[in-house]
Amino acid sequence: MAKYTEQFKRSVVKDLLSGKGCSSREVARRHGVDHGTVRKWVAAWHGEAAFSKKYSHYDARFKLKVLQFMQTKTLSCRETGAVFDIRNPAIISSWKRQYDSGGIQALQPRPRRRPVKQPKASPPPKPTSPDEARTKEELLEELNYLRMENAYLKKLDALIRSESQSAAQKTQIVAGLRHQFPVDGLLKVAGLARSTFYYQCKALQMADKHAQLKARIRSVFEQHKGRYGYRRVTSAIRRLGTVVNHKTVQRLMQLMKLKSLVRPKKYRAFRGTVGRIAPNVLQRQFDADAPNQKWLTDITEFRVGEQKLYLSSVLDLYNGEIIAYETATRPVFALVAGMIKKAMKRLGPGDRPVVHSDQGWHYQMAAYQALLSKRALTQSMSRKGNCHDNATMESFFGTLKSEFFYPTRFESIEALQAGIKHYIHYYNHSRIKQKLNGLSPVMYRTQPVRP
Question: How far does CA 27 lie from the centroid of its chain?
C-alpha cells in the first residue's frame, strides 16, 4: 500500500471540495490515487488537522467515545475510522465485541509483561517452618525424597555421562530403583509421566528384531578381522541367504561400533630417467574382458623395527587377482625379475597382456624390458609423478596395509613374510568385492561361463 503525506492528502481533498464540479473519480485520476481512497479522505476531513496522527495509544474512554459516535450516527467501521483517523478500521469492530461482552472494563488495555515460565519438574517440598516445629512424618517424607533424588542422580551419572537424557534412559533408571523406593516418588524426581514409564517398560521388554542380523554382522566382521565395511558385510550376508538392505547393515554396525580399518601410505622408487621410458598404453583403462589381458605391477615397502621388507606383485585387471609376487629385504632388480618370471608362467600360448607400471628404475632397465620382449608383451608406464595412472595397484597396497599390516604387531621379517603369504591367499580366494558381484577374485575367474 502506497504511503501519502499529510500535505498530499489535504491537497487532494481541497481539490475535490474547491467547487470546480469535478467528481471524486476525476480528482483521483488526476492525482494518481484510487477514488475509494479519495472518498475516505473526504469523509475524514474536518479541518487542517484532519490527517495528523493524534493517537498512538487508545484508552478506554476514547474507545467508548468512538463506539457511541458510530452507534449514534449509524456509521460503518470504515466510516467511523475515517472520522477519527483510525488507520485500521477493523479494530473498531474488535472494540465493539469487547464492550458487548465485558462493558467498559473490557476496553481497558492489558498490561504488557513477559509470561512466567513454569518449571518442568516440581522441586522437592520446601520446609515452611523450622525443623524443630515439623512433625516426624514431614521430616521422614523429605528424607525419603532426598534419598530417591540422590540414588537417581547416581544412576543417571553412571548410565549417561556425556549423553542427553531420554525417556528410555530415565525408564531404565526408575526401573532399577523401583524395588527400593515408591514408583510415584521416582517418577516425580525423574520428571517422567506414568504412562510414558510403562510404555517404555513394555518397549524395553520386547525382543530386538535385529538380534539375529546383529549376530551375523558381528560374525562376518570378526571373521575378516575388521577388514570389511558395511558394503562387503552386506554382500557376505546376502550370500548366506539373508536379504538385507545395506543401509540397515550400516546403521547396525554404527550402533555396535564396528568400523572397518583405514589406510595410510606407500613406498616410492623413482630415481629419474635411468633407461627407456615406455609410453602410457593403458591410459587408465582399468578393466579387462578376460584374464591375462592387462597386468599392473609395483613395489611397496614394509618396516619392522629397524628392518625393511619389499613386496613386488602383479595384479590382473580382469578380476583384481594377485597372480604373482616376490618379497625381499632390499629393493634389488632380482625382486622384480623373479616376480615377472612367476607371472609369465600363468600365460597361455596366445596370451599377450599389457604390463603397466610406474617409472621406477627397475622397469626402465634393459634387462626387465628384455624379459617382456622375449614373450612379446607390451610395456606401459604411468606419466611421471602421476600415481593415478596406476591407481588399482596402489589401491591394493593400501588395502593390504590397512587390513593386514597396520593392525598387527610383527616380531620379525619372517613373521611378516608368512603373514603376507597368508593374506594374499585370503585376498584372492575369500575376500569378496562389490565390483565382482560379491565374489572373490578366484571365485569370479572360476565361475561357470553363462551361455
Answer: 64
Dig out the grid coordinates for 341 from the structure.
618370471
Mean pLDDT of 60-80: 80
Residues 107 and 275: their CA atoms lie apart, in Å, by 101
The hierarchical CATH code for the domain 294-446 is 3.30.420.10
Q: Where are the domains of the chain?
A: 6-107, 138-205, 211-255, 294-446
In 3D space, the residue among 163, 162, 183, 161 whose CA is nearest the CA of residue 171 turns out to be: 183
Let me know: does 200 contact 173? Beta carbons within 8 Å: no
Quote the DSSP letter at residue 402: I
| Residue labelled with grid coordinates 625393511 | 308
Name 65's Cβ contacts closer than 8 Å, sequence gap at least 6: none
| The model's pTM | 0.47
**Span between the terminal Cα atoms of the chain, in Å:** 77
Of 18-27, 127-136, 156-165, 205-214, which one has max mean pLDDT?
Answer: 205-214
What string of DSSP letters covers 28-56?
Answer: HHHHT--HHHHHHHHHT-SSTTTTS---S
384-442: pLDDT as tens digits = 878 899 999 999 999 999 999 988 889 899 999 999 999 999 999 999 998 998 999 99
